[in-house]
Amino acid sequence: MARKSTVSAITDPALILRATGDSFRKLDPRTLMKNPVIFVTEVVAVVVTLLLVRDIAFGHPVLFTAQIAAWLWFTVLFANFAEAIAEGRGRAQAETLRRTRTETRAKRLLMPGNNELVQGVEAADLHVGDLIRVDANEVIPVDGEIVEGIASVNEAAVTGESAPVIRESGGDRSAVTGGTTVISDWLIVRVTASQGSSFLDRMIALVEGAERQKTPNELALSILLSGMTLIFLIAVVTLWPLASYSGTVLSITVLVALLVTLIPTTIGGLLSAIGIAGMDRLLKFNVMAMSGRAVEAAGDVDTLLLDKTGTITFGNRMASEIIPVPGISEREAADAALLASLADETAEGRSIVALVVEKSGAGGVQRSDQMQFVEFSATTRLSGVDIGPRKLRKGAIDAVLRFARENGGETPDTAAFRAAHERIARSGGTPLGLVENGKLLGVIHLKDVVKPDIKERFAEMRKMGIRTVMVTGDNPVTAAAIASEAGVDDFIAEATPEDKLRYIREEQAKGRLIAMCGDGTNDAPALAQADVGVAMQTGTQAAREAGNMVDLDSDPTKLIEVVEIGKQLLMTRGSLTTFSIANDVAKYFAIIPALFIATYPELSALNVMQLATPQSAILSAVIFNALIIVALIPLALKGVTYRPIGAAAVLRRNLVIYGLGGLIVPFAGIKLVDLIVNALHLA
Amino acid sequence: MTIIGWAQIAAIFALVFVCVKPLGLYMAGVFSNEVTFLSPVIAPVERAFYRLAGVNPAQEEGWRSYTIAMLVFNATGFVFLYVLMRLQGVLPLNPQGFSAVAPDLAFNTAISFVTNTNWQAYGGETTMSHLVQMAGLTVQNFLSAATGIALALVLVRALARSGARTVGNFWVDVTRATLYLLLPFSLVVALAYVATGLPQTLLGSIDVTTLEGAKQTLALGPVASQEAIKQLGTNGGGFFNVNAAHPFENATAISNMISIWAMLVISAALPITFGRMVGDDRQGWGLLAAMLVILIAGVGFAYWAEANGNPLLTALGVDQIAGNMEGKEVRFGTAMSALYAAVTTGLSCGAVNSMHDSFTPLGGLVPLVLIQLGEVLPGGVGSGLYGMLVFAIVAVFIAGLMVGRTPEYLGKKIEAREMKLAMLALLILPFAILGFSAIAVMLPKALESLANSGPHGLSEILYAYSSATGNNGSAFAGLSANTPWYNMTLGIAMLLGRFAYVVPVMAMAGALAGKVRGTASEGTFPTHTVLFVALLVGTILIVAGLEFFPAVALGPIVEHFQMLAGKTF
Fold first, then answer.
1. Annotation says A413 is catalytic
2. pLDDT in the model for residue A283
3. Closest Cβ opposite residue B406 in set A232, A246, A299
4. pLDDT tens across A419-460, in order?
5. Which member of A242, A582, A648 has the closest CB to residue B437?
6. Which residues lie closer than 8 Å to B371 by C-beta, 6 or more apart?
7. CB-based contacts of A679: which residues, under 8 Å, 6+ apart?
8. Which entry of A307, A474, A531, A584 is annotated as an active-site residue?
């Protein structure tokens, strides 16, 4: 994918420079207010700075206060930096997109029905419902629906894929996107979106994070973090009178230091970066989520509705065996099948040729002038070849039987023939009859080929508690056979769009979240109903409007990865929250003895880290608290490792790493900072 | 510590453990309005009550009208109790002829008994008439306990149901809790107490001549009956001033055992009721395990601290082989005193059989911390369960994301609204405990009530506000709390601890009830495993415990280190 290479690494100097600038811009309290934990940090940083100014004015010693003030500001800046760097990566992508969006002129039809009479207008002047004509080598100015014509379109601007795709009126490939280019032929397009609200515009806005709102879970988490901030505020504010009762007068600076180390600044500072990075990961995967809410929902999905064709099986059925009826040798049947398929350019026909050649060689069969090929038609539902008096045909069973009756009157050995095609149907395959004049020769077994490794993928999904449901238009027998081969949990056979919608509603009523992908207009209601609806970029406008994600590669298999990325986002958020809260234990052991050691020297027993002096202890805790944000930025952007090992195992693993780690790491970290602080004589 | 001491502790826990399942399932039946073995006797009485009150037992209500009913019911109880105390001088059943209770004390006591706190700023046998004790205090002992159970049921039903608009009927829940649970069990326990020698009489007091020939007045009264519901309902308000240390309230080792068993059993069984009602017994056992892990650790720690005694006394040549026996009854010893202290505070009961003030600093730290952890170990009847469920929801929220799904508890998504209400509830404890303590230590008037200065004095104030806000009711002693300042502020703390906590919890229950309950899968966060129990314990210690660490460090912790250093106050 072309776009992948445009994503900058977080070590990119230009990106870092820009993010550094942004971190200062984000100090504006109006924007910072959205992040209560960091906002509180900024407020107390201001307070300590004012105290510093007072101390300087009165000529008090300032080394300690100055350092605390500086590190408080760093804490805020580091949090801003994390967000800025996550946004910066998206912005680089948006600029790539914007470059492809050029100011274009459009040719508006003056009279519907007359495709030649056009008027040149600015794209900006187009209204929804206008008809425009786009010719070869012209950029399609706005999003629209093709009403007439067929053309190959280069959609690289949107998808990053340079191979042109066919777009035509009617059917599921009738949507065109503004900014893409017609390569050949012409199109009449009805405008469906005005400029500024087109797909490309929305995409740029999304990537830039301009439309970013807190997702429901982010909102709930912010409430938890604000609540904890409030609890610690109470603890710290009341500590002043309690300490003064005990004969210790605490300075505001040390109380502020205690507060800032206790409130969850780590997760507070990284929360929005995690969310942005999650959307970003999806985009790198060429899937565009219309909202952060959709990414979150992807992590929660309980049931995946997967279209059989293209997702579970390869798009086309392939010949897997040729069964001759008694009296016909394998060679005879194979030759007949080969002859009947020589001119058949469909994937099925080619697979028959390939099967015969691979198994027994082409023999003496070659194209010759005497051969008169009969193409498939919807009325006969047969295709084949006439070689003199020999009329070889292949096709659906009933069509072949009819052909045999018409040509020979008798139908020899129907019992064996029926046994063969019924066995194939039962196994989920499609039987194709083979007939020469009035004589049945055998049955070709066309098989849906399940993609390799798909069964393992489904097993992984199951471990994560996700049910996979195959949706297919096949009859129940065929569907059941493929379902068991692919290892899906359930299937919907002979599915109509209404069936899909009904299934989704039923599952949702049981409290399950559903993900599906689709491209056709008739998929739109189901896409809209599903909790995660991934529309294919090649799909219709209606489908793309209905879904909450768009897959630019139009690869339905990606639904699985989308779910994994959603899970990874939530895991990262949870792990860093747990880590952040577990950190508090060590900070207490650093600061509390330091605060009261003058009054109660006995409390030095709590100084388990053996920090050098009370001042260095407090300073070290504050420095550690600020630096841990920076240290965790890469993890926040990259996300924690996702492994499909089941919720219980994932929890055990993450709880050990981030819960237990969160308890232990700060003890070592604060001690280390303390050693450095003392080596440099900073306190 | 001795093997006998530990054996006694183990025996009582074993006794509770045996009863937990049958009692839990019995309660699940009672509160699912099923027919129980007591129904033939009680159902007619129950129906009569409903007819009398004009309640349609089949009609359930939403969380709002349920909560309003609860508030109105409790407000009425408060007014009735207050008036009763103010008028006791002119009312009958007052053999000792006590005059009206002072307004601030009556206010404090009425709130105290309505909120299931049973903080007693007075000496029962020298202040309250029999009428107040029986028709006022004992009645509230039943009703406040029944209210607690009813409130817990709301949250349980909210989690059990899917897309529900109603959470039960307050009048039915209170009536059934009283009639099917508290009354019959109290009857049995009261008889057991009488068998161990507790008095049950309407006589006020008798004068006796002691062996030395001196005259002594022995206060008497309907002790056994009040004692039974005091323990079963985790009320803790004693008949006598010294509570269960008094031989008439707690005569023997056997009555002591019954007391501990009785105060633990309903609260420990309620998680099982919860598990059954949500359709997964393991969920209940998980919660109970988390409760007991912290409680047993607290018991062990307190027993260790008390058995070790005070090194300063050892240095003076005092025999401390029996441990720190100051303020303890010889018939109980350190093991049963430490157990009683930990259980009564883990439970929000507040009955005491020894003076917590006289514990060693670390021994006294245990009851203080157990209260500050939110009274969920296993907490007061009902209040412990809903408190624990709030913690479970917070724990699931913090760590639940780690499995890659938005947090859910029992298939219910935990979203912004639930989190807001849970945090609102959790804020109450630090707000009231630390806030009032901080004001008290700045007021010379409030400091006059202290018997000790220095860290021990701080512990006494912290303990008083913790006990009131946690609706525990036990006193650290050493603080003369019957002053207008303490009567008023402790009264407000009790109100906040009960109602300001439970109203958000009820709103949360309302929000949860309406959600569709998803089915569990391999991908959902397991809330019944050992891992979850560990997580829950960690969450309680960090989220609820850490905020009190600075204050506690200035109280019992520094006192401990100073004791080791040989300092006294």
1. no
2. 82
3. A299
4. 888 888 887 788 889 988 888 889 999 888 888 888 888 888
5. A242
6. B345, B348, B463, B466, B467, B470, B472
7. none
8. A307
The mean pLDDT of chain B is 92
Beta bridge partners of A152: A166, A184
Pairing of strands A430-436, A439-450: antiparallel
The CA–CA distances, whole Å, from A248 to A600, A601, A610 equal 9, 12, 22
- pLDDT, tens digit, 9 for 90 and up, residues A550-591: 888 877 778 888 888 999 999 999 999 999 999 999 999 999
Closest in B399, B542, B551 to A242, CB measured: B551
Cis peptide before B247 (omega within 30 of 0): no
Query: What is the domain extent for residue B499?
Result: 283-564
Quote the strand ranges of B182-222, DSSP E: 205-209, 215-219
3-state SS of A366-413 is CCCCCEEEECCCCCCCEEEEEECCEEEEEECHHHHHHHHHHHHCCCCC
- What confidence tier does A668 reach under pLDDT thresholds 50, 70, 90? very high
**What is the average pLDDT across B131-139?**
88
Per DSSP, A2 falls in state G
Contact B70, B115 (CB under 8 A): no
> Which three-class secondary structure state does DSSP give residue B103?
helix
Report angle CA A196, A199, A204 to the nearest 5 degrees.
75
The total number of structural domains in chain B stands at 1
Q: Is A660 exposed, middle or buried (0-12, 13-18, 19+ CB in 10 A)?
A: middle
- Mean of per-residue pLDDT scores for chain A: 86
pLDDT for position A410: 66
In sequence order, the β-bridge partners of residue A491 are A470
Instruction: Tell me: pLDDT of A7 over 60.
Output: no
Asked if B427 lies within 8 A of A237 by C-beta distance, the reply is no
Structural domain contains residue B428: yes
> Is B262 within the bounds of a domain?
no
Residue at token pair 């919890």: B505
Angle at B242 between CA B238 and CA B245, to 5 degrees: 95
Tokens at B569, concatenated: 């106050």
Q: Report the C-alpha gap between A104 and B480 in whole angstroms.
A: 86
In a domain, B354, yes or no: yes
- Assigned token pair, A515: 């993900």
Phi, psi at residue A188, to the nearest 5°?
-105, 125
> Which chain A residue has the Cα nearest residue B444?
A245
A596 and A234 Cβ atoms separated by less than 8 Å: no
Of A301, A303, A302, the residue nearest A569 (C-alpha): A301
Checking A232-235 for CB contacts under 8 A at 24+ apart, the result is A232/A259, A232/A262, A232/A263, A232/B547, A233/A40, A233/A259, A233/A263, A234/B427, A234/B430, A234/B431, A234/B434, A234/B435, A234/B547, A235/A262, A235/B430, A235/B434, A235/B547, A235/B548, A235/B550, A235/B551
How much is the pLDDT for B309? 86
Indicate whether B367 belongs to any domain.
yes
Handedness of CA A625, A631, A637, A641 (dihedral sign): negative
ipTM of the complex: 0.93
- Residues from chain A that touch B558, judged by Cβ atoms under 8 A, are 246, 596, 600, 602-603
Both structure tokens of B252 = 């023997």
How far is B408 from B519, CA to CA, in rounded Å? 11
> Which one of B372, B394, B403, B420 makes the best mutation probe of the A interface by having the most chain A beta carbons within 10 Å?
B403
Contacts of B538 (CB under 8 A, 6+ apart): A582, A659, B395
Three-state SS for B413? strand
The helices-and-strands tally (H runs, E runs) of chain B is 24, 4
The CB-based long-range contact list for A383-390 (8 Å cut-off, 24+ gap) reads A383/A340, A383/A341, A383/A344, A383/A349, A384/A339, A384/A340, A385/A339, A385/A340, A385/A342, A385/A343, A387/A339, A389/A437, A390/A436, A390/A437
On the question of pLDDT at A6 being above 80, the answer is no
